[in-house]
Design a protein that fits this description.
The protein is built from eleven helices and 19 strands. An eight-stranded parallel sheet has the order 8-7-6-5-4-3-2-9. Strands 10, 11, 12, 14, 15, 16 and 18 form a seven-stranded antiparallel sheet that branches. It has a two-stranded antiparallel ribbon with strand order 1-19. Bound molecules: 2-acetamido-2-deoxy-beta-D-glucopyranose (4 copies).
Length: 425
């Protein structure tokens, strides 16, 4: 608490003393109060929880690794096992990155004579069950990939019209997660093609995370909440600033539809793949965490730089993503040339806010968040913690907060309100 809040409170108490209709009193906010600190018009949660698939998973966004962004089709059981080993030895698994997800190209080009999917005998000679056992022994979970079409994107057999048999097979192997793609879909609407796999997975009796990948083509936020645990909102990401920023903005539109049980998915992380700078990767990770995006590492974890590991293992940023309140933060303010000075924010449990200052301009700038833009009561004071520096700011902030940010970098803070005002008529 800072002194000026006391003065304001005395002033308000004096005003209330001469008014018989309004009484105002200053109250410290309770610790661990779950009530959002923001005006509801800033963070529309009216769809929140309405559509969720009730398989008990995805209470917070999924975390793990996926083979596609770095390896594409160049995968085999050795690289998947080595990745699992590295997730453990780097400490990433302990931070929550538990899903080891195999993307396209694990299967043979054709089904068996009995009609089953078959792991590619050259690259996965021990089979998927054996890989799942290896991964489970390490306390991790195995994800696999198929497609709601007649072929996968790399022209392996798809699961359309084979939902029950394929779901049974995945369950019998001990698979924990299915990413379900959208290629060769015969022009049938996704609203028709995705629910049958949901039902087939459910019928196996095994709890399997269901990740929809229909690229955002049919506004999945509007219908996928009752179908999957997450749904892609955009085309594939690529390892560039242009792609990452475009996708962040597209995903932002659907903020009101995410919540525990079902998340918007702006695609997997590119952090560590080499196409962006350290500052850009830090911004990528910050904004994905704030948007409650799945945190699926997309680099070669067997060969990460210290900077990549530092970004991916920032506990405080991960905690924003995994916050139990589960409200997707969003862009709340932008100004300057092409709106390049941006403030993104979202409510957290414990009556806190996460506030990110993202500089998308070509040089360093100062970015300011006014309380009005954050939906905060103008009289509230907040303590401020920098979660990239892991440092508390020496002074509480009142009415606004400004910070200088390098080009393409993002600073991220936790605001904890110190005093609030209760109005009673
Ligand atoms: C497995 O895949 C990795 C990554 O592409 C590659 O470096 C390695 O040579 C492959 N191993 C085998 C046995 O094919
Ligand atoms: C199947 O769906 C029902 C109804 O939503 C749910 O209660 C149950 O937990 C689901 N089971 C599995 C294995 O996903
Ligand atoms: C990456 O995405 C950006 C933005 O969508 C696009 O302009 C660019 O062509 C893509 N690059 C590649 C290599 O696909
Ligand atoms: C490891 O990553 C560096 C770039 O950071 C690259 O130059 C090197 O070839 C990689 N090594 C392997 C074995 O992939």
């Amino acid at each position: 608490m800072v002194n000026h809040t006391v003065y304001i409170s005395l002033l308000i108490l004096w005003v209330s003393a001469i008014s018989i209709t309004v009484a105002v009193r200053v109250v410290p906010l309770p610790e661990n109060n779950e009530r959002p600190a923001l005006k509801s018009n800033l963070f529309d949660t009216s769809n929140y929880g309405k559509l969720q698939l009730n398989n008990g998973l995805a209470q917070t966004p999924q975390m793990g690794w996926n083979s596609w962004n770095f390896f594409a089709c160049n995968i085999n059981e050795t690289v998947i096992k080595e990745t699992a080993d590295e997730l453990i030895s780097t400490g990433l698994a302990e931070l929550g990155y538990v899903y080891v997800n195999i993307d396209d190209c694990w299967s043979s080009p054709s089904r068996s004579l009995q009609g089953s999917l078959v792991p590619d005998p050259e690259t996965f000679p021990s089979g998927i069950k054996s890989l799942a056992d290896y991964i489970h022994e390490k306390g991790l979970k195995l994800g696999i990939y198929s497609d709601a079409g007649v072929f996968t994107c790399q022209v392996r057999p798809g699961s359309l019209f084979h939902e029950s048999a394929d779901a049974e097979l995945f369950a019998s192997w001990g698979v924990d997660y299915l990413k379900y793609d959208n290629c060769y879909n015969l022009g049938i609407k996704p609203e028709k093609r995705y629910p049958p796999m949901r039902d087939a997975l459910n019928a196996t009796g095994h709890t399997i995370f269901y990740s929809l990948c229909e690229w955002g083509v049919d506004d999945p936020a509007l219908w996928a909440g009752g179908v999957g645990n997450s749904w892609r909102t955009t085309d594939d990401i690529n390892d560039s600033w242009a792609s990452m920023t475009t996708i962040a903005d597209l995903n932002d539109k659907w903020a009101a539809y995410a919540g525990p049980g079902g998340w918007n998915d702006p695609d997997m992380l590119e952090v560590g793949n080499g196409g962006m700078t350290y500052q850009e990767y830090r911004a990528h990770f910050s904004i994905w965490a704030l948007m409650k995006a799945p945190l699926l590492i997309g680099c070669d974890v067997r060969n990460m730089t210290a900077e990549t590991l530092e970004i991916l293992s920032n506990k405080e940023v991960i905690a924003v993503n995994q916050d139990p309140l589960g409200v997707q933060g969003r862009k709340v303010y932008a100004e300057g040339k092409d709106n390049c000075k941006q403030v993104w924010a979202g409510p957290l449990s414990g009556n806190r806010l996460v506030v990110a200052f993202w500089n998308r301009c070509s040089k360093a700038v100062t970015i300011t968040a006014k309380w009005e833009a954050l939906g905060l009561d103008p009289t509230i004071s907040v303590s401020v913690r920098d979660i990239w520096k892991h440092e508390d700011m020496p002074e509480d902030a009142l009415t606004s907060f400004s910070t200088q940010v390098d080009s393409h970098d993002c600073k991220m803070y936790i605001f904890t309100p110190q005093m609030a005002y209760q109005f009673a008529v």
